[in-house]
Amino acid sequence: MNKINKIKGFFDLFPPESTAYVFMEETAREVFSRYAYTEVRIPILEHTELFARSIGKETDVVQKEMYTFEDRKGRSLTLRPEATAGVIRAYIESPEAGSGGVNRFFTTGPMFRYERPQKGRTRQFHQLNVELLGEHSAFADGEILLMLWSYLQKLGLKELNMQLNSLGCTSCRPDFDAKLKNFLAMSEQENLCVDCQRRARSNPMRVLDCKVKGCAAVASSAPRILDSLCRNCRDHFDTVLAVLDMTDIRYELNPYLVRGLDYYQRTTFEVISTDIGAQSAVAGGGRYDGLIRDLGGPDIPGIGFACGMERLALLLRSIQERPLDFYLAVLHEEAMDTAMFMAQRLRDKGFEGEMGFQIKSLKSQLRLANRKKVKTCLLLGRDELEKGQIQVKDMSTGVQRAVSQDDVEQALGLNLKTKAESFVQH
Ligand code: HAM
């Protein structure tokens, strides 16, 4: 029979990569909960309009990258390309929406974008996504940035830089858009790609985010939004910078950081690694003060970020995945049920181990235990069964001794750290 292959740009995860994902998620839960963020779980599939209205019709994501299809009743649905729109949709539908308070959410899971796959860019990828809803204060931006940085530090990632910009608000942005439109109208149109020739009139900021060489060249001498901020946006941004200056976060201003999604206002940021090639942003986010209202919710502000787990995984490597505590080898059919219950007893106590179900020679059982890189091999044959004992073989020293079946736990020792503790940066 022909085998069926996975879809291009989609990946299966086995250990140690899958263990790295568990580590990223567990660390996120630990760090984010210290800042009072609670976990929400939302659908992977949403009405297409949710993304068109939030991410923006002129963005690459909406124009070229969404997995959109009709369901059996002809409704247009889309596999989520990001989590922010879904979290806000869910929030607006929840009782929290009317409460007027501040809400802190995080979520994790797969996202889908039909992009050209390359290192650090896949069509199914995973994000750790955070949203803080209902707070205008620049200190909320500070909290978000500090939490993101703390999380990355906790993963052991040291060589990272943050890029920062402000995109202004509804009062100063229109002036800047007009300036940018003028500038783009004066530029050689043939240097811009077809999409950007249109965007130059409809959504000029998108030209600054275009990856096409000619557009990037034009964008490099475009006016800078940081020179056009209104008083309130300037003060807001200055406070964010003052907060960062009190921390050890390595940041730099990037006046052309406009991000690939239309909903941002004021603070935007990306965290960049120089170690993973062209797709260097391991996290990105910003403030989206008009979005909740535009999606039919209350007129409250929001700010958040998402980390790309595939890109973080490129920076993590397993130094020593913790081996299983035991492999239990059965040397005689009659010992099978005793072995089964002994393995169960050990797992109930928190030990991690595997039991062999095939009766094999001592030599081949030990070879198997060796291959599995277990710490200890437990051997149970007819002799041991009769004496109420079990052989305990330390696989690193080769020392083997018989112990009473009641004493196996002590013989294995107590070292119940989680596997995930053994990840560090390259
Ligand atoms: P984004 O910058 O589009 O922002 O994505 C965030 C991160 O997801 C990127 O920095 C990157 O690490 C990862 N990522 C994006 N596309 C891919 C891909 N094709 N393959 C692998 N990794 C990828 C957002 O999605 C916003 N929703 C973030 C946000 C939350 N803003 C406010 N709240």
Strand content: 15-25%
The average pLDDT score comes to: 93
Bound molecules: histidyl-adenosine monophosphate
Query: Major β-sheet, in short?
Result: 8 strands, mixed
Number of DSSP-assigned strands = 18
Shape: elongated
Describe the structure.
Helix 1 packs antiparallel against helix 5 (138-154) and helix 5 (138-154) runs parallel beside helix 9. The chain has 426 residues and is α+β, with helices and mostly antiparallel strands. It folds into two domains: 17-172 and 229-315, Bira Bifunctional Protein, Domain 2 (BirA Bifunctional Protein, domain 2, 2-Layer Sandwich), CATH 3.30.930; 326-423, Anticodon-binding domain (Rossmann fold, 3-Layer(aba) Sandwich). Strands 1-5-6-11-10-9-7-8 form an eight-stranded mixed sheet. The chain contains 15 helices and 18 strands. The model is unreliable at 415-421 (pLDDT under 50). Helix content is 35%, strand content 23%.
Give the secondary structure arrangement, pairings included.
Blueprint: H1 17-34, E1 38-39, E2 45-47, H2 48-55, H3 60-64, E3 67-70, E4 76-79, H4 84-93, E5 103-112, E6 124-133, H5 138-154, E7 160-166, H6 173-186, H7 194-202, H8 213-219, H9 231-245, E8 251-253, E9 265-273, E10 281-287, H10 291-294, E11 302-308, H11 309-315, E12 316-318, E13 326-330, H12 336-348, E14 353-355, H13 362-371, E15 376-380, H14 382-387, E16 389-394, E17 400-404, H15 408-412, E18 423-425
Parallel strand pairs: 1-5, 7-8, 13-14, 13-15
Antiparallel strand pairs: 2-4, 3-4, 5-6, 6-11, 7-9, 9-10, 10-11, 12-18, 15-16, 16-17
Helix pairs in contact: 1-5, 5-9
The chain binds histidyl-adenosine monophosphate.
Residues 82-84, 113, 115, 120-122, 125, 127, 129, 131, 260-261, 281-286, 304-306, 308, 310-311 line the site of histidyl-adenosine monophosphate.
